[in-house]
Amino acid sequence: MKVDLLQMVEYGGCSAKISPKLLEEILKYLPLPKDPNILVDIDTHDDAGVYRVNDQLALVLTTDFFPPVCSDPYEFGQIAAANSISDVYAMGGDPVLALNIMMFPTAKLPMEAYTEILKGGYDKATEAGVRIIGGHTIDDNPPKYGLAVVGYIHPEKIITNAGARAGDHLILTKAIGTGIIMAGQRLKIADEADIDEAKRLMKLLNKTGAEVMKKYNIKGATDVTGFGLAGHALKMAMASEVTIRIDMKKVPLIGNVYKLIDEGCIPGASFRNLDFVEEHLQTASDLDYNLKMIAFDAQTSGGLLMSVPDHIFHEVVSDLQSVGLTSSTEIGIVTEKSDRFLLLGN
Length: 346
Ligand code: CO
Ligand code: CO
Ligand code: CO
Description:
Bound molecules: cobalt (II) ion
Largest sheet: 7 strands, mixed
Helix content: 25-40%
Oligomer: single chain
CATH class of the largest domain: Alpha Beta
């Protein structure tokens, strides 16, 4: 029996995240632990928490898991692991250890699918230098998979959402549109080549991009995942108390993503993301509708969004391209805080 995981879910990958607005509502009631060794907590909506062990070492902790984002179990495992580990890279950390988190419907799928998902996760973790040393499985439908990851970082070298400064250039390291392509795949109108490119990008570790960030001592970054380019840019603008302007025509897109929107491929998660961002957003009056909706497309295992000071900006872009992140480009700028946190233009 050929397993097709994508047919088991309505929302796969990071599109399955609950709405950022609802999440904010819920987290309001959760007290934050107070401890001087907590260097980064959810206050700044960062990718991971950071805890100081001593003056040389802090731990980066993060977890992510989600339902299938592609048909093949092995590829799903790879993508889920790359996505989970990405939050450590986005903070400038070195991922070291992980635990598997797995939900699997034993009555609905053959056990080979279970093994294949874990094998995909193991291989991707190994590529990242991460040892998976345990995990936990629940019998549940549809399947969900991800990792809880621990990384090391120097307490003074943490890259956060709060590190963007007026005058910086915004660089994105992967083309976007994975949510739209997945929707197109389900409707059977996405090109095979675009599906392959989306899967290649989702499997691609943010490791090389993170190495470039560390080389240039970049202070502000995040990875673009479930809240979309606009949602993650907003979180960065708020944490840094700046305004971010994104020029949507400069944003690299996967294949025929623009055309798929004309054909109705706007996943529900895009509207949830738009709803979250709207009150802090100003759009240019002539902003193209498709480009606007692409800004809200939930990405799975998306690229790094970096805020790069002007004097190193050209070197950073050329380094990113030379390590294989060929679509890395400037997509916007950071300015002093004006009346909205986020501006979307053409
Ligand atoms: Co993240
Ligand atoms: Co995450
Ligand atoms: Co257990």
